[in-house]
Amino acid sequence: MAKKRTNSEQSKESIVQAAEALVRRRAATGVTVDQVAKEAGCAKGLVHYHFKTKRGVLEAVAENLAAVRQANWVTAFSAPDARTAIDRTWTLLTNESDDGTILAWNSIFGPGKVIPGNLVSQVQRSFAAALGDSAYRLLRDAALVPRIPPAEIGWLLGSIVHGMGYQILSGADRSEIEGAYAAAWLGILSLAT
């Protein structure tokens, strides 16, 4: 039997969801506690009660965003074959650019970040590890033997995903970026025998 959530847990979750929606639209630096409270439909004092500061709210958003994003990428890689996985990850990348995930991610974890560096490092490492493990399994399932460790594949893929996501968000021609994404995968595939 599932544990029933308290009103306090529900209000805290509602505040995090409201803050994340704002960060997806405006970036982290463009969000205030007043705006979060208004978006959540609660008093500003309730935001301070649960999170103390804007940074506290943004740390909760960061943890939530990172967990969901990592799960989405692992799921996209879980495909019957490499071609389908590459297509799914491209679709996910374009969806993240459209739904504000890339904007939120870059504003929280990128240059000028608004949360502590240790959380940024932890999230970036975890995301790269998940990408690396997923790609490594994908290559092994395709009867390819990667010549570099999963961690290095993960960092490479993380850089590709974040860079191309940023380019899409900045208005680059999607067909050109899609071609570059395919070329990046050819490079990754060339790292296996």
Uncertain segments: none
Total count of domains:
1
Tell me roughly what share of residues is in helical segments: over 70%
User: What is the 3D shape?
Assistant: elongated
What does this structure look like?
Helices cover 77% and strands 0% of the residues. It has 193 residues and is mainly alpha-helical. The protein has a single domain (7-189), classed as Tetracycline Repressor, domain 2 (Orthogonal Bundle), CATH 1.10.357. The longest helix is centred in the C-terminal third of the chain and has 25 residues, at 117-141. The model has no long low-confidence stretch (mean pLDDT 91).
Question: Key terms for this structure?
Answer:
77% helix; 193 residues; Tetracycline Repressor, domain 2; mainly alpha; single chain
Summarize the structure.
The chain is built from nine helices and no strands. By secondary structure, the chain is mostly helical.
Annotate the secondary structure layout.
Blueprint: H1 7-26, H2 33-40, H3 44-51, H4 54-77, H5 82-99, H6 101-109, H7 117-141, H8 150-169, H9 174-189
Helix pairs in contact: 1-2, 1-4, 1-6, 2-3, 3-4, 4-5, 4-6, 4-7, 5-8, 7-8, 8-9
